[in-house]
Amino acid sequence: MGSEGMQVVFFRGAGRLQPVQQFLEELERPERRAAADSQVDRLGALSTDDPPLPPPWDEQVEAELRALRIRVGRESFRVLYRRSGTLFILLHAFEERGQAIPEDEMRIARRNNARSKVVRRSGTSGLDTPIGLSFEAHIAAAELDDEYRRARARLAPFEQVARLLIRYRMDHGLSQTQLAERAGISHSVVSRIETGQHRTNLETLGKIALALGRRLAISFLPPP
User: Fold this and answer.
1) Cα 189 to Cα 27, 59, 198, 205, 214, distances in angstroms
2) Per-position DSSP letters for 116-130, written without gaps between them
3) Confidence of residue 48 (pLDDT cuts 50, 70, 90)
4) What's the pTM value of the predicted model, to 2 decimals?
5) Residue 211: which residues within 8 A CB-CB, separation 6 or more?
6) For residue 149, what pLDDT is reported?
């Protein structure tokens, strides 16, 4: 049997609050929300057999907890999450102020992690699960907004190239610096491409393809 796909879901706390969803929805401007959502959605592109996303996008911070890094323009955010079977459960999000994760943010993540394992009783509906909305449903709802949908469409080609590079690094155990050295480009160029928010010229793509032992192909396709 082939490996299954992973599903990304929000932790749902007291009052049915989904803190990570709220954090993402409160980012200003549809373009920023779309960029952040695309990067979180990289988790959903993984299969059950895949390793975690490579640095600097993901790191293990405690036994169960991992930290996903999101970069939007010059800002960085962290989403703390855990894996449970075929689920990635998004527990807590905050704006990054330095490399180390502040202890107060870790306390919130640990608390939400503990609560994500407890099914509560509700006086009106019986059992109340701490597993909330799927990330797929979150994006579908966000795309009802025309500006957000256009922003997602504009960023889609950049995100596709970003995921190709990240996937290659995952499969070959390469850092961004090692990939840059192979392609004869700077580390900052690789980092910029992997944010999924910037155009890349054909010369750079050609260098990367050659370094990866691939052939760059360009074609015109009918719309989906």
Assistant:
1) 26, 22, 10, 11, 19
2) TT-PEEETTTEEE-S
3) very high
4) 0.90
5) 179, 182, 183, 184
6) 96
Q: Whole-angstrom Cα distance, residue 19 to residue 93?
A: 8
Q: CA 221, CA 218: separation in Å to the nearest integer?
A: 10
Domains assigned to the chain? 7-150 (no CATH), 152-211 (1.10.260.40)
DSSP secondary structure code for residue 121 in this structure: E
Q: Provide mean pLDDT across the span 9-31.
A: 93
pLDDT of residue 1: 38
Mean pLDDT of 38-55: 96
Q: How is residue 203 written in tokens?
A: 């010369």
Specify the higher pLDDT residue, 50 or 118: 50
* Cα 93 from Cα 107, distance rounded (Å): 12
pLDDT digits over 179-195, tens only? 999 888 999 999 999 99
What residue type is 99 in one-letter code? Q
DSSP string, 16-49: G--HHHHHHHTSSSHHHHHHHHHHHTTGGG-BTT
Q: Which two tokens stand for residue 197?
A: 């928010």
SS3 220: coil
State how far the Cα of 158 lies from the Cα of 48, in Å rounded to an integer. Answer: 25
Residues 87, 103 contacting (CB under 8 angstroms): no
Average pLDDT, the chain: 91
